[in-house]
Amino acid sequence: MIETRDLVHRYGDGEDGSARPAVDGVSISIDDGEFVALAGPNGSGKTSLVRLFNGLLTPDSGSVAVNGVPVADDLVAARSTVAMTFQDPKDGFVAATVGADVAFGPENLGLPRETIDRRVERALSAVRLAGREDDRIDRLSGGEQARVAIAGALAMDPDHLILDEPFAGLDEPARASVLDRLAALSADGTSIVVVTHDLRDLFGLADRVVVLRDGRVALDAAPESARDRLARLDVRVPVRGADP
Ligand SMILES: Nc1ncnc2c1ncn2[C@@H]1O[C@H](COP(=O)(O)OP(=O)(O)OP(=O)(O)O)[C@@H](O)[C@H]1O
């Protein structure tokens, strides 16, 4: 479980009182196996919030705990149980080739080679990049790079998987394949948080949608029960009757 209480983060010191917190008093909990879409307009604090989940950002006040352990007390545990992709995949790459990059996380967990190879193979197949281990990342298209980043997070086999705008640049087959894998992981108990502006792909999959506005939770509900409120909050929802 990921649990935040009265979480506040502001960039800069805000000493003159002018800096509005990017995350402003968020209390939410995400259960194991829960599939959450995190939506909201540009600048509403989505990326900042998920970066607090694994200690990439530090709260100014409030707390965040993963599996009952405060992130501040055990960053290593938080980083190994919460896997995250970045909005710009280039921010997360650590190796020159696809296979080396996807293997990096599991290697750091000290897993046996066969386990690592199996995870890499499975993760690459989930993003439709099977057999592309030796490709250089800098020669891939933006969409392919986004898929490598997702594969890297999948290969961690994390308790909690956070994907920040994962579908930008993905073609339809890749998007469908990733969505399938996410659904299977969620059914197996992995909690999944997908940051997005657009709920259309996730409407039938997400158990819950949390909408941020100005760093605060403006809505936390099951998607189907909140169609009209979502539309009023400028979150794109599928046309009724056209759900997957
Ligand atoms: N590194 C930073 N330094 C200063 N301010 C920042 C930084 N990152 C984000 N902010 C500010 O914090 C607020 C929340 O930004 P954040 O990126 O978390 O929102 P978001 O909902 O993820 O936006 P988007 O949908 O555009 O990615 C915004 O006002 C943004 O300008």
Automatic annotation (TrEMBL):
Function: Probably part of an ABC transporter complex. Responsible for energy coupling to the transport system.
UniProt xrefs under SUPFAM superfamilies: P-loop containing nucleoside triphosphate hydrolases
Protein name: Polyamine-transporting ATPase
Stored Pfam families: ABC_tran (PF00005)
Coiled-coil blocks: none
Keyword rRNA-binding: no
CDD domains given in the database record: ABC_cobalt_CbiO_domain1
Annotated ABC transporter domain residues: 2-239
Keywords: ATP-binding, Membrane, Nucleotide-binding, Transport
Gene Ontology CC: ATP-binding cassette (ABC) transporter complex
Organism: Halococcus hamelinensis 100A6
Annotated compartments: Cell membrane
Superkingdom to which the source organism belongs: Archaea
Protein family: Belongs to the ABC transporter superfamily.
Molecular function as annotated in GO: ATP binding; ATP hydrolysis activity; ATPase-coupled transmembrane transporter activity
InterPro entries hit by this protein: AAA+_ATPase, ABC_transporter-like_ATP-bd, ABC_transporter-like_CS, ABC_transpr_CbiO/EcfA_su, ECF_ABC_transporter_ATP-bd, P-loop_NTPase
Membrane topology, from the record: Peripheral membrane protein
